[in-house]
Amino acid sequence: MKVKVDADLCVGCGLCVNVCPEVFEMNDDKAVVIAETVPAAQEDACKQAKDECPVEAIGIE
Ligand code: F3S
Questions:
Q1: Is 0.90 topped by the overall pTM?
Q2: Cα(23) to centroid of ligand 1, in Å?
Q3: Residues with Cβ within 6 A of ligand 1?
Q4: Which of 12, 38, 41, 53 has its CA 20 to 30 A from that of 61?
Q5: Measuring from atom 3 of ligand 1, which residue has the nearest CA?
């Protein structure tokens, strides 16, 4: 599973970093992905972050 954050959409709410700090990190006021290929143990948390991001900036494939 791969994940990315659309920096044009992200409003820096920080939810993804709280839900899944192994994969997302704040860089200034935007989230960045620090583990593009999501470790199996983090997949559920990563999906939760995607579902809960208020601006749907997180993409999973
Ligand atoms: Fe940005 Fe959404 Fe995360 S707004 S900080 S990608 S939860």
A1: yes
A2: 12
A3: 5, 10-16, 31, 49, 53-55, 57-58
A4: 12
A5: 16
Distance 39 CA to ligand 1 centre (A): 19
pLDDT for 16 equals: 98
DSSP-assigned beta bridge partners for residue 33: 24
**3-60 to CATH, choices 2.60.40.1510, 1.10.287.70, 3.30.200.20, 3.30.70.20:** 3.30.70.20
Q: Count of CB atoms within 10 A of residue 23's CB? A: 26
| Count of residues making up the chain | 61
pLDDT in tens, the chain (61 residues): 999 999 999 999 999 999 999 999 999 999 999 999 999 999 999 999 999 999 999 999 9
